[in-house]
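Weekly sync, protein design subgroup
Attendees: M.S., D.O., the rotation student, P.L. (late)

Item 1: inverse folding check
M.S. brought a backbone from last month's batch and wanted to see whether the design step gives back something sensible before we order anything. D.O. pointed out we never logged the input encoding, so this time it goes straight into the notes. Structure tokens as presented (315 positions):
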């Protein structure tokens, strides 16, 4: 069947921006990658406009006609209803009416949302969440955040800040204080930056072959590989991280009673870590998660873009 509409999708992250066009079935028709970096919202707006202009000039529309709408998945806090990008983080908290600006410039409706909430929309559109009105999407990558879908709707909270579950203490004691003021937040243990922090703190206490880069974070894939070879430090890091993730999942399950939990992000997508997490889940706690605790089926290279496509469709 011929595609009826296409949608312009933008996945804006901390290091890159993907601009692409999707069919109404979620197929990525075209895409192009652009660099981002550490920027505020106004600088990001310039990057987005420059990228879209370049995309139109060098790639063009897949069907020869303008997409029905555009959607953007963004890092930080986003007011989806009003199209406002509220902040990237507490230090970059300019409030930008991004959707209205881009809608006027490109002559098409524009919708924006947080990247993790966008991913949850993608799951409900064409992923494991199809036909499921109660599920949790949990992203474990550089940081940790979640999106809860209840009665078919993404939970946003009073200030569009729901889902910042990386700032949750999960009973895994490391003695590290988080910037939020509490001890042992799960993000400091099981995210990409958490693995890096823990590896540097514990490196001298264990026999290990793990190298500590001077400028870049520790490669978590190296940790997994060395752990499977019996490296003492890496075994400890993987064990405490998998326990922290499992405990976080069980905490979230108790709060929203989902039918399904979908895991995304590079940290947990590795089979080694996923299996270790599964081993630590208590059957009684997760007995009502009838559709399982599963890894996302969406291609990690395009998941953010598909999420932005779901945002463009205003799902």
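Designed sequence read out in the meeting:
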């Amino acid at each position: 069947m011929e595609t009826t509409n296409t949608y312009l999708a933008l996945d804006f992250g901390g290091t890159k921006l993907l601009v692409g066009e999707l069919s109404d079935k979620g197929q990525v028709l075209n895409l192009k990658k652009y660099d981002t970096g550490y920027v505020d919202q106004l600088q990001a707006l310039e990057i987005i406009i420059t990228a879209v202009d370049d995309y139109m000039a060098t790639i063009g529309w897949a069907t020869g006609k303008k997409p029905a709408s555009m959607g953007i998945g963004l890092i930080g806090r986003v007011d989806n209803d009003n199209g406002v990008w509220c902040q990237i983080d507490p230090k970059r908290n300019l409030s930008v009416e991004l959707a209205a600006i881009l809608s006027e410039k490109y002559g098409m409706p524009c919708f924006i949302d947080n990247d993790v909430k966008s991913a949850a929309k993608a799951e409900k559109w064409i992923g494991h969440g199809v036909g499921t009105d109660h599920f949790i999407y949990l992203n474990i990558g550089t940081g940790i955040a979640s999106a809860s879908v209840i009665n078919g709707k993404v939970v946003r909270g009073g200030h569009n800040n729901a889902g910042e579950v990386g700032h949750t203490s999960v009973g895994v004691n490391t003695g590290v204080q988080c910037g939020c003021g509490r001890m042992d937040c799960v993000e400091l243990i099981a995210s990409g930056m958490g693995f890096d922090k823990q590896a540097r703190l514990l490196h001298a206490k264990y026999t290990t072959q793990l190298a500590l880069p001077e400028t870049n974070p520790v490669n978590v894939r190296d940790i997994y590989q060395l752990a499977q070879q019996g490296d003492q430090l890496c075994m400890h890091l993987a064990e405490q991280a998998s326990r922290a993730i499992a405990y976080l999942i069980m905490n979230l399950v108790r709060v929203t009673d989902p039918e399904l939990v979908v895991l995304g992000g590079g940290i947990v997508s590795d089979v080694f870590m996923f299996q270790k997490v599964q081993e630590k889940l208590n059957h009684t706690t997760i007995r009502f998660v009838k559709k399982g605790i599963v890894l996302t089926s969406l291609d990690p290279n395009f998941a953010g873009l598909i999420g932005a496509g779901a945002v463009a469709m205003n799902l």
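Discussion: The domain at 6-125+301-312 is CATH 3.30.420.40 (Nucleotidyltransferase; domain 5). The chain has two domains: 6-125+301-312, 132-295.
Action: P.L. to compare against the previous round before Friday.
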